[in-house]
Amino acid sequence: MEIIQSVLNGILLGGLYAIIGIGMSLIFGIMGLTNLAHGDFIIVGTFICMILASQLVGSLWLALVITILVMTVMGFLIQNFLINKVLDKGPEPALLTTFGVSICLSNALLLFFGADARSINVSFATANIAATELISVPAVYSVNFIAAICVIVTLHYVLNHTYLGRAIRATADDSRAAELMGVDTKRVFSYTMGLAMISAAIAGLLVGTTFVFYPSTGTQYLIIAFGVVVIGGMGSLLGTLVGGIILGLAQLLGAFFFGSGYQLLSGYLVLLIILTIKPEGLLAAKTRK
């Protein structure tokens, strides 16, 4: 029964990992850019949501809505006034720009909030959902998984059934042809970053209700996001969910068989194995050119 418990927890944890990685996957799939500030964006969203819920608005849901709006505007401005300015100069300047943004954000959080551990308190944080008499799953993991499914389904609809989504897909397929058809690709990139920041805000809330966090933990979630999207395939929404589940299962099964000290090691051993067998990711061939 304990192994079944570990499998269920791994699958549900994979939902949180998927929503952590979905923004990075979206940015890479559209712009071909590895956003090194992605983890710090998530932690910024966590801190904004925590401050709003605990000190200003009182409601966690209202705090999330405000955080989404703030993060969307911030992402649009960063993309429009920083990253877009260097995209035409090759991949390295844009990569370094996101690295600089990451450093600025993490140090700003450290300056304003200190280095203490924080968390977002919710009523279901310690609750369990009983599947059988012997098996139960953490309620917070279940909420994370449901949220991941909702975000992925929503992004799929936006990308496939809206004008913005068609413009984004056209830009991803061939930016020069899209420009010839009248698409403002730089503006599309800014809107894409806005979508990625919406997912980062939601991921930030879920991270804050599931784990303790620090101003410096953005790098930890950047590594998780990178592992998820590499396993599933850069730019694949479904692949991100699959990658998150595989990474979550690998970590918790590794902890079950070898001890908690091997949780991270087992996850990244699976990442290396998949990179060796299929470097482009498990579902990349089905979703990208």
Automatic annotation (TrEMBL):
- Say which species the protein is native to: Sporomusa termitida
MF terms per GO, please?
Answer: transmembrane transporter activity
Cellular component (GO) terms are:
plasma membrane
State the name under which the record lists this protein: High-affinity branched-chain amino acid transport system permease protein LivH
Instruction: State the encoding gene.
Output: livH_3
Tell where it localizes.
Answer: Cell membrane
Against PANTHER family, the record matches this protein to: AMINO ACID ABC TRANSPORTER PERMEASE PROTEIN (PTHR11795:SF445), BRANCHED-CHAIN AMINO ACID TRANSPORT SYSTEM PERMEASE PROTEIN LIVH (PTHR11795)
Keywords tagged on the record? Amino-acid transport, Cell membrane, Membrane, Transmembrane, Transmembrane helix, Transport
Could you tell me the membrane topology recorded for this protein?
Multi-pass membrane protein
First-listed, main subcellular location of the protein, grouped into a coarse class: membrane
